[in-house]
Amino acid sequence: MKILHINTFDTGGAATACRRIHLSLLEKGVDSKILLLHKTKNIPETYAFSSRVAKKTRPPRHQRVLQKLRSTFTRYERKKAEKKIADFERRKQGAEIFTFPYNEYDVTTHPLYQEADIIQLNWVSGFLDEPSFFEKNKKPVIWRMADLYACGGGYHYEKDFPFEALQPELDENFSIRKKALKGTKICLVPISDWVEKKAQESTLLRNFPKKVIHNGVDLTIFQQHNKCFCRKVFNLPQDGKILLFGSQAVSNKRKGFGLLMKALQAINRKVHLVIFGDAPVLSKFNLNHPVHSIGTVTDERMLSVLYGAADYFIMPSIEEAFGQVTVEALASGTPVISFPNGGSLDIIVNGLNGVIATDFTAEALADAIQLALETDFDMEAIDQDVRSRFDIRKKAESYLALYRQILAKRQY
Fold it and tell me: What is the mean pLDDT of residues 58-81?
């Protein structure tokens, strides 16, 4: 059984989840490989896509305009093209990310594709040319849904997305994807019940079979530590409660950092806020609690120690497909306080391993923080829950079972 995972990057949350699945499959003796458009890390059995097997295809509208600018057109045509670019960028304001279902790459010509028994798509925006791929592909395909990208015409999340402003591009992409998927047989793997619900509501995806498989973590890396030791490692105060927040995109409104700041202003009890990842601008917030900025932590074992230094991890995202940091924190023995976003609803059990706010307001988050501060969480119960539900080795077994079912029945 040869599995080929296709992913655009080897960095970011979706890439981390793909890597964890891949490494667990390798550990079980499965022939697993990852094909990447952008390879930056030395991960076993991961390969960069060679530009020598790229193909020419009609690029997205804004890229066609850019190509015009690079060509020898009249001044009038260049100014017209510049106007189109400016118009697209203006209308795109507010979109966290907007991508297209087609590009210049043809993964079906790559030797790794040709030797594979099953193709597992992951986060493939900017890499997978859907029209040519689904037309040429004759292999079983699993599309692991890391967000909502496959559901529509270019958006990855819905909150605050400028649907009306980008309707022309959305309609064009939707039509292209609908045509590409017509008559295909793929199995969708949403990473949460919320993603599955969105896929079921999508006219593009509702008729495809779906199997929810949550993300998992390596429990030999993310594990409980002595809190005093953890705080010494990061030079954090030994007394007082520590709330931990981390994100690679603090400025992203969806991540909810602004709401967290407002919520903390309502907390009368002194707490320490520890932030890792991107350094936010704190001067605009009137915060009456000490703040400690750790910076980026790339080593996962050190990250587990950082989780262990905190009393609670805060997940203030207003929309999240899963939220791997939530499970990482729990595996490290740290309860989680979260908004009721899609992933957290699958992960957090109120009173057992954290607290979910009643709604998406700063006031509700403040109430959840206060409730968590008053709750005595059972660390052994948290550990048992994580091991039963989010062990990456068990998730790899779920994927293996799905692969075997697909290969045995040849229907999916």
Answer: 57
